[in-house]
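User: Just a sanity check before I run the rest of the batch. Below are the structure tokens for the first item. I only need the designed sequence back.
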């Protein structure tokens, strides 16, 4: 019995041991299988690194390592960069005719890479709304700001050391991911249906220490392609810059509308207020005092910043223009000295390929003035900034070759009457170089954070612009950020007068206000100091900022104007144009050439003349805007004085509506065109006539009269003055020539427009419900008055064409007043 029991025990033990042995064998088998799978076959779609990034891969190390295997592109993302915020800036790199322009920014988004078990998600981050994470409302803000997924990627492999993740990114750039392609406005305008993937591809993916640059060609099927219409498609090359944002955002400096600055907004729900408010803060470079220089700075000594602003001049820039572009950049040093820094901004030549074969203008560490072989007659200065703080991270100034044509035209038409250096179709290098320096300074100002200051030039009395001592000290405006191009006011005999602006009083003040460190205060604590800097100069027009307007309401903040009196300045300007026209042939001639340059510069004369008409006409119904806060006395909005409005109307009657005979030079016209002069004069006059008879302008005049009564220039009074001037022949019974007949018909047509149309346009600064305003009542009264004058004049007019004209006008008026007749 015992033996039997013992045998059973042994059997049981044996069975137990066998069972354990069997289990170990099974586990070993599974481990070997797992290793085998990891080595030789995918698990959950994740392959061994060497199976994805093969020995044939071409790799580019940087922010991410970019691998190219055949036609497939991979990002190897360090795990340390997951959940870091990155800025994606999308630009059109190359384009076809009428589809934006090369270098034009189309979209900016903050992105965040998020790793999931099997996927990597690219999420869109918004900083539009905010509340500090220490506040109870923070959770509500997060729940209302859920980050959408822009794109999802399968994880293809894990890095060799298991600290990185590999994804394939072809789809991100080859699919129609809208934020990375052409903007929606082009899609709608050109009736884009979809991306043609067979004609779309990745051009390059390049990795740098702080950014990745993607170039990809997109072909869109489009029913309304603006060029190459026979293809039924448009092709563009897009550039996407993905920039790593700093771990620690720069301290913000908060915006004040009294100082012009590019700024960004954020709705803050955490403020101690009974409503959410949008706070705005400046776009600016991170200029900081070195720790070892703090005491020097406090004592008023100029110090170099921890990190300078450095601009590199593109290798493609012609040698003769490089010194002038550099000077334009470093001209801003004097402004930064007002902010306490020396050598804050410097210019360098880009290293040659031999000096640094890895240097690239697309590396976000380098800000570059890029010289582009483009017919666009322009330059622009965009910048890339951190949306969390406003810190400018990098800027590339796009310098288009044909900006020199624009400079030639401006300088000629605005100064040739008094300036021998501006006469001719090609300037000496030193003259063109000085003009390039001026544009370089202006564009750099934008990259520092300064917008156009169109209210600057009005600070100077017009006659001061004829003074050599004044203009040499102050230039043509207190700010180079105004469009105060060249001195068209100066007259013959005004010797040694300066002809263009420099870094001015306002520019130094604005740079100080935006950049000077306030060491003992941060963020909103700075406000009292910043306010004190503004109030030091309150009421001084040299320190005024006037914003650029889509529709001009404030005539003291216009583009291309000079001085504090548009009538006087434009009168001087026209006197100079009258000196240029008789000399145009002499100043543009060159044996063996045709008359193309003559035609171009004659057109520039007309364009400049049109600017003067706009400067003056915008005073009629104008309202000045001078931004103030509660602690400053006086109105923010003030109507243009009645006297100035009346002077402006008289100027238009004398210089425009009375035919500008000086412009009609048959010796020029018979060399540049077979016809067109009559239409040119008509369109010139009608442009300003319609500007005066604008719904918004008329609405402001009605409001001014309602508020200020007899001290205003009323709409009915203005209309009376306008009609009497345009139809002055009626009282005399005199002949009405071709030009005046066209103008008079245009006047009647415009009144018909006022009687039948409603206000249109997206950017009207003054909204008017036309049918319920006084506009149509006054227009109807003017038509009836004009009809009576025509009836009276018909009996006194002996000229046949004048009589036909008046009879036609009478019929037109009858149809307007009674369309059913």
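Assistant: Here's the designed sequence for the first item:
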């Amino acid at each position: 019995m015992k033996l039997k029991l013992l045998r059973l025990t042994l059997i049981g033990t044996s069975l137990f041991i066998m069972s354990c042995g069997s289990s170990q064998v099974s586990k070993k088998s599974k481990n070997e299988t797992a290793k085998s799978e990891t080595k030789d076959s995918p698990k959950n779609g994740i392959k061994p690194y060497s199976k994805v990034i093969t020995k044939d891969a071409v790799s580019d190390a940087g922010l991410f390592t970019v691998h190219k295997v055949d036609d497939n592109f991979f990002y190897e993302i360090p795990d340390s960069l997951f959940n870091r915020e990155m800025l994606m800036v999308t630009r059109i790199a190359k384009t076809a005719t009428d589809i934006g322009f090369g270098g034009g920014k189309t979209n900016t988004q903050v992105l965040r890479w998020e790793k999931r078990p099997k996927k990597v998600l690219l999420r869109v981050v918004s900083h539009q709304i905010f509340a500090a994470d220490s506040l109870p409302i923070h959770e509500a803000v997060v729940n209302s700001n859920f980050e959408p997924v822009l794109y999802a990627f399968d994880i293809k492999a894990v890095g060799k050391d298991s600290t990185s993740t590999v994804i394939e990114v072809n789809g991100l750039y080859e699919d129609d991911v809208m934020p990375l392609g052409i903007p929606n406005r082009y899609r709608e305008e050109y009736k884009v249906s979809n991306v043609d993937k067979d004609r779309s591809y990745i051009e390059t993916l390049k990795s740098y220490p702080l950014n990745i640059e993607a170039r990809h060609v997109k072909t869109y099927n489009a029913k309304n392609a603006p060029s190459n219409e026979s293809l039924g498609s448009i092709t563009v090359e897009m550039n996407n810059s993905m920039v790593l944002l700093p771990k620690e955002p720069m301290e913000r400096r908060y915006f004040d509308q009294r100082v012009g600055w590019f700024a960004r907004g954020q709705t803050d729900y955490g403020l101690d207020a009974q409503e959410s408010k949008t706070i705005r803060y400046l776009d600016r470079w991170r200029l900081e005092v070195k720790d070892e220089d703090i005491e020097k700075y406090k004592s008023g000594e100029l110090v170099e910043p921890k990190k300078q602003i450095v601009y590199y001049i593109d290798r493609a820039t012609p040698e003769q223009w490089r010194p002038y572009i550099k000077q334009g950049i470093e001209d801003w040093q004097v402004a930064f000295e007002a902010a306490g820094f020396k050598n804050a901004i410097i210019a360098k030549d880009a290293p040659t390929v031999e000096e640094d074969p890895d240097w690239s203008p697309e590396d976000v560490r380098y800000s570059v003035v890029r010289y582009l072989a483009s017919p666009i007659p322009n330059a622009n200065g965009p910048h890339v900034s951190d949306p969390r703080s406003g810190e400018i991270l990098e800027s590339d100034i796009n310098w288009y070759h044909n900006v020199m044509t624009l400079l030639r035209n401006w300088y000629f038409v605005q100064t040739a009457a008094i300036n021998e250096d501006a006469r001719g179709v090609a300037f000496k290098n030193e003259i063109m170089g000085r003009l390039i320096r001026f544009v370089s300074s202006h564009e750099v100002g934008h990259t520092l954070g300064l917008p156009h200051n169109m209210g600057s030039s009005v600070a100077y009395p017009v006659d001061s612009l004829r003074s050599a001592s004044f203009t040499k000290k102050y230039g043509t405006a207190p700010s180079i950020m105004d469009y105060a191009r060249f001195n068209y006011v100066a007259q013959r005999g005004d010797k040694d007068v300066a002809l263009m602006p420099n870094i001015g009083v306002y520019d130094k003040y604005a740079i100080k206000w935006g950049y000077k460190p306030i060491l003992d205060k941060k963020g909103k604590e700075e406000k009292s100091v910043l306010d004190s800097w503004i109030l030091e100069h309150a009421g001084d027009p040299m320190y005024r900022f006037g914003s650029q307007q889509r529709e001009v309401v404030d005539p003291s903040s216009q583009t291309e104007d000079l001085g504090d009196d548009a009538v006087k300045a434009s009168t001087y300007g026209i006197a100079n144009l009258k000196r240029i026209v008789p000399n145009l042939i002499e100043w543009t001639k060159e044996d063996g050439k045709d008359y193309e340059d003559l035609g171009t510069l004659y057109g520039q004369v007309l364009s400049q003349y049109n600017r003067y008409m706009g400067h003056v006409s915008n005073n009629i119904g104008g309202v000045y805007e001078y931004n103030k806060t509660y602690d400053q006395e006086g109105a923010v909005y003030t109507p243009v004085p009645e006297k100035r409005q009346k002077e402006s109307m008289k100027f238009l009657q004398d210089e425009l509506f009375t035919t500008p005979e000086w412009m009609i030079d048959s010796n020029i016209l018979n060399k540049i065109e077979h016809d067109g002069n009559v239409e040119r004069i008509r369109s010139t006059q009608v442009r300003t006539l319609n500007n005066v008879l604008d719904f918004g302008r008329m609405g402001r005049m009605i409001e001014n009269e309602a508020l200020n009564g007899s001290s205003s220039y009323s709409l009915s009074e203005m209309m009376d003055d306008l009609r009497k001037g345009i139809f002055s022949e009626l009282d005399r019974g005199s002949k009405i020539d071709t030009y005046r007949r066209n103008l008079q018909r245009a006047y009647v047509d415009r009144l018909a427009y006022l009687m039948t149309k409603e206000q249109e346009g997206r950017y009207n600064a003054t909204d008017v419900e036309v049918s319920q305003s006084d506009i149509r009542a006054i227009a109807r009264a003017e038509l009836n008055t004009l009809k009576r004058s025509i009836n009276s004049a018909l009996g006194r007019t002996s000229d046949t064409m004048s009589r036909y004209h008046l009879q036609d006008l009478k019929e037109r008026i009858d149809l307007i007043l009674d369309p059913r007749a």
